[in-house]
Structures are given as structure tokens and as C-alpha cells.
Amino acid sequence: MSGPDAAVDAAAPTADAPAPAAPSGVLPGVPRSGGPLVDEIAFPDRAHYVELVRGYRDAGFELCADLCVVDYLSHPGRSLPEGVGAERFEVVVNLVSLSEKRRVRVRVQVPESEPVLASLIDVYPGVDAMEREGFDLLGVRFEGHPDLTRILMPEDWEGHPLRKDYGVGRVPVQFKQAPGPR
Amino acid sequence: MTSGTEQGGGPGAGDVFVNAGTREVPRIAETSEGAQEMDLRPATDPAELRREVGAVLRLPEGTVLNTGDIDIERRDDETMIINMGPQHPSTHGVLRLMLELDGETVLRTKPVIGYLHTGMEKQGEELTYVQGSTNVTRMDYLSPLNNELVFSLATEALLGVEVPPRAVWIRMLMSELQRVSSHLMWMATNGMDLGSTSMMIYGFREREMVLAFFEKTTGLRMNNNYIRPGGVAADLPDGWQDDVEVICETVLARSFEYDELLTGQPIFRDRTEGVGNITAEEALALSVTGPILRSTGVPWDLRRAMPYLAYDELDFDVIVGTYGDNFDRYSIRLNEIRESIRIIRQVAERMPPGDYRLQDAKVTPPPRARIDESMEALIHHFKVFTEGFKVPEGEVYVAIESPRGELGCYLVSDGSSKPYRLHIRGPSFVNLQAIPLLLRGGLVADAVAIISSVDPVMGEVDR
Predict the structure, then answer these.
(1) Across the interface, which of B36, B57, B162 has its CB nearest the CB of A155?
(2) Distance between terminal CA atoms of chain B?
């Protein structure tokens, strides 16, 4: 779809997108027949991520529709634009401009050795629950989030279930205060 | 999955923790940060306390609230923290709210969720695209067809296929009927929460008509698995126009009865007007969509703003409110029932003939009759249901307007027949963030009315 064939145009980001510094490309949105637009996709690095998203907000993207984390452990060879090094985790942020009726997707790579990313909470307070979900299910820490606790799993749960190396069916059902086997 | 190779060692006693000990790089994000509950004031960090008292997470500077200005000085013996839910009947499932009260006034609120978490996104990675719609349909159990729709649209976008026009219009018909049934259900439960028991009975009665039509068409009242990648599962039954027209006529006529029953009723108005206010800036900052966002006057409806299916060919209005209170949300939903009926009538009139699903043996199973006469059809049938179809590598985000707001599906494919990652952006999950703000400074008795007006479906919140 959008990824492999679209031309990478890192040097000339679209008009209202802020010029992202350093190695990040912006794949322009292209219309697709009989369906929604293929969204514009930006690939900032971790250092410029918040800055880029803030730039988008100031450019009129009022709503942060979604934030989710993908674990690419068993699919490392995905297609990314040139200059973007594939890492294990990817945080995907979907922004909406209500005035322009446009979407943009920000995909930022987060390495396995240091699964930490700056929180967007100062830019979009609505990412609160979404970042907590990303931490809970995939174990990416969002630095600067004021209340980064588990949201769907119990507090004492070990591991992050949506990670690809999470042992499905190998973790015993955890009931607090359940009497142990005698 | 690489769990086997990564784990190392046999399944011994120390193997409970995923990968613990076998990795060279220690996982820093292995354990939880702490409690999900709300703490007493002395035990809460001042910054966190300000955030909770303000109930808004640092809105953009200058818009609404500066958390530094929030007065958190208060003697502890004046307040108490009570627990509402997860078994409270008015929480529409298993929502748990921790409320800090000063007398009857709500100071802080914290929703605690996860009681219905069943790992549906994880399960979605284990099911093929053919089976996937049976999984997603169970998320928002009050509008299952919309969940199937967004999953199917995302899959089709990755496949790069276009479904036949009749399938598109059948999908619109079912999606709007679902919106009617979902809003009727909301009218019913909202009436129940506000003490209008007759409304509950009426809402369920009318919803049952819609569900009976679903049963006739799809075979099931709920969790239909009717909208599938490639089209819909079956054509509309004979005489569907009459059934639909009866539903439209009855529900439309009765919507005016509800109007009379509720809108003019002083108790209902007192309990809804000016209760649970939210502004457009706050709603947008908190990523709130759907009737709550529209109640603040923002005409944001994906059917109109970013049309999917064939909504751009239809004539309907986007209902908006003014004050962003409970009453606006009530009237938006009531009027959306009428708008949906308008859409349903147009769809029924203009329903195109033709195939109800894609006739591509690689995506949809061949018709039953062909299996008896064609070996190839049998093979294709077998292939579709055993290993499914392969979807080209890529990622896509598709969003539709569910009765509760923007329902999004982020789908990543690695080229196999199962989604690599399936993420559903549940509108209820995000809208729940507005509850602390809506409840702040109100009475605890209004909490029930406000939770109801947010219309959370816990199956979708917890997924």
C-alpha cells in the first residue's frame, strides 16, 4: 500500500508540516480510489518526536485520535523509508485536523534496549490512557507521563502481554491471595 | 511467534516470568509502576494531586486550566474516598470509579478499568483475517456490526480490493440500523439511571425490533459476524424493505413519544441541563469524539467529514449541541436516531442490485452450489477457511463513526494470513478520560447521570 512504493521525500516535507530535523522522512498522503486517503506518514527519530508532534498540533491538528505501540520482533524486515532504522518497537500516533479534514500518522522507532519515549501529554492530554495502555501491554515507558501505571492488566502482573515474545498459554492465571497447592 | 526460541530452557519453576534471566539486557519495563487506584491526599504527589483535582491533564497552555493554580490545600478529615463499582448497576458494566467526596461534592475522580480485559488484540493476532471479525465484533457489544465494519474496511484497504456497490449499501443499512439500536439502548439505560423506568422498557422494546431484523438477516441478534472482509456474509432476506420500513416508521413515531416523555419532564431536565459540562477545547484536548464532542458544538462526524462507504451520496444532518451538557448529549442521540432513519430510508430506496460480496475466490469463499460441481471451488473454499487469505505487507489506519465516536482500526500485516498487529481505537476507552472532568465539582448523585451520558461500553474499553 503506502509504504514500499510511495516516494520518500525527506528533503521537502509538505507545506504545513513542520520541517523535521535530522533523519526523518515524511511520506505524503495519496488519494486512493474508493476509500479514505492514505494518510501522510512522518518518521521522526526519538529526539525530534515531541517537537514534530507539537509542530503538527500548531499547524492545526487539533485531535490526537490514537496512540498505539507495535512490537516488530518477529517482523523486522518491514519497509521503512531510507534513513529510518528499524527498531523493535514502534509508537504510532494518529493525528486529525478537523479544519482540514486530514489525518497524519507519526511513526517513531523505539529500540528494545531502551524502550523509553517522551510522553506527548503536554501536547495532547488525551494520550493519557493510550500511553498507559502502551506501557501496560507493550512495556514502552513514556517519560514525563504523570501516572504511568498499568491500565488493563492487574498491577502485579508480570510482563507485557502484547509483546511478541510473551509466552501465550505459559503464564499461570494469577489470582491474588489464591491458596497455593498443598 | 518466536516465543520458543527466545525463552530458552525448559518450562521449569523459574520460567513463569517471561524471558526473565535469560536476557543479557535487563528489561527495565518489566514491572508495574504502582497502584492504579486513587490515593489519599497525604499519599499523593502534589503534582499528581493538582492534576486529579483539576481533572484535566495539563490542557494546552492558556486554554482552560493552569494546574499550578489549582488549590489543593484541604484538611484530610473533610474528604473521603469512596468506591463506585465495578459492580455498581449504573456503571454499565464493570467500570470502577474512585471518587473523593467533600460531603456530596465530587472533588477528584479516577476511573479504574480492566475488569473485562480479555486480550482481544492479542487474540486478533492469532486468528486469520477470515476469523478476525468474530473477534472484533465482541468488543463493542452494543454495536457489533460497526466493529466488523471497521475491521473489514481496514483489511480491504490492505488488500487493495473494492467491494461491490450492493455490499457497500448493505453495510450502510446495517450500520445505521445498528446506530438506531445502540442509541435506543442508550435511551433505555439512561432513562433507567435517571429513574424513568418506562423509558427503559420502551427503549428495549424498540431495540428488539431492530435485533429481530438482524436475526433474520444475519442469523444472530448480536455479535453477528455479518460484515466480513470482501463484503457481507449473506444477502438481505426477501421482504427486507417491508421490515426496514416498519422499523423506520415505528421508531420514528415513537421517538416523538420519547421526546414528549423526557424532554418536557421537569425532573429529567433538572437532572440533565447544566450537568456535566465540557467545552470544545477540553473535549478536543482529551481526544473525546462522538456525541460528547458534538454536544460542544463541534460538527465532527466522520460520516460527513471523512466519508467512508457511500455516505457522501446521502442526505443527512450532523446534529450538534451548544452547551456540552447531559441534555445536549441526550438530544443529540435522540435526533441521531431520526437522522439514521432518514439515511436508512434513502439506502432502502437506492439499494443497488448485484453481488453482496466480492467474487474473488482468494478472498471470499465460493457459493455453496459451486462446491458440488467444481473441484477448484472446493479447494478455494477449503483454503479460505483453513489458512485464510494472505494480505500484502503494510499498515493502515481506518476510522468510522460508531455510535460512540471515532472507532479506529490500526492493522499491520506482515504478508501472512493473520494480522501482525490489530489495534482497535475504542471510542469508549478514550471518552472515559472525560469522566473526571465532567464529574468535578458536581454532586455524587449526578455521577450516575454523567456516566450514563458518556455511554461507555466496557467491552470496548477493556477489549
Answers:
(1) B36
(2) 22
**Number of residue pairs across A and B with CB atoms under 8 Å?**
205
B3 or B324: which carries more pLDDT confidence? Answer: B324
Q: Cα–Cα distance between B148 and B362 in angstroms, integer? A: 20
Enumerate the residues of chain B whose CB falls inside 8 A of the CB of residue A155.
Answer: 32, 34-36
Q: Does B264 touch chain A (CB under 8 A)?
A: no
Q: Can you say how many angstroms the Cα of residue A56 is from the centroid of all Cα atoms in its chain? A: 15
Query: Does residue A39 sit within a domain?
Result: yes
Q: Does residue B79 belong to any structural domain of this protein?
A: no
Which CATH number belongs to the domain containing residue A74 in this structure?
A: 3.30.460.80
Domain contains B369:
yes
The mean pLDDT value of chain A amounts to 75
Is residue B224, in this structure, part of any structural domain at all? Answer: yes
Please list, in sequence order, all residues whose beta carbon lies within 8 angstroms of the beta carbon of residue B290, skipping any fewer than 6 positions away.
B401, B402, B403, B404, B405, B406, B427, B431
The pLDDT of residue B75:
58
Amino acid, res. B259: D
| A54 within some domain | yes
Q: Which domain holds residue B190?
A: 120-428+444-462
Complex ipTM: 0.79
Domain count, chain A: 1
Whether B75 is covered by a domain: the verdict is no
Among B441, B104, B107, B71, residue whose Cα is nearest residue B277:
B441
Q: Give B379's pLDDT tier (boundaries 50, 70, 90).
A: confident
In this predicted structure, what is the pLDDT of residue B24? 47
Mutate to test the interface with B, among A66, A100, A141 (most CBs of B within 10 A): A66
Q: Which of B44, B287, B320 to mutate to test the interface with A (most CBs of A within 10 A)?
A: B287
Q: Say yes or no for a CB contact (<8 Å) between B48 and A65.
A: no
How many independent structural domains does chain B possess? 1
The CATH number of the domain holding residue B232 is 1.10.645.10
Note whether A162 contacts B121, CB cutoff 8 Å: yes
CB of B73 within 8 Å of any CB in chain A?
no
The whole model's pTM is what? 0.83
Q: What's residue B285's pLDDT?
A: 85
Amino acid at B167: A
Neighboring chain B residues of A160 at a CB cutoff of 8 Å: 29
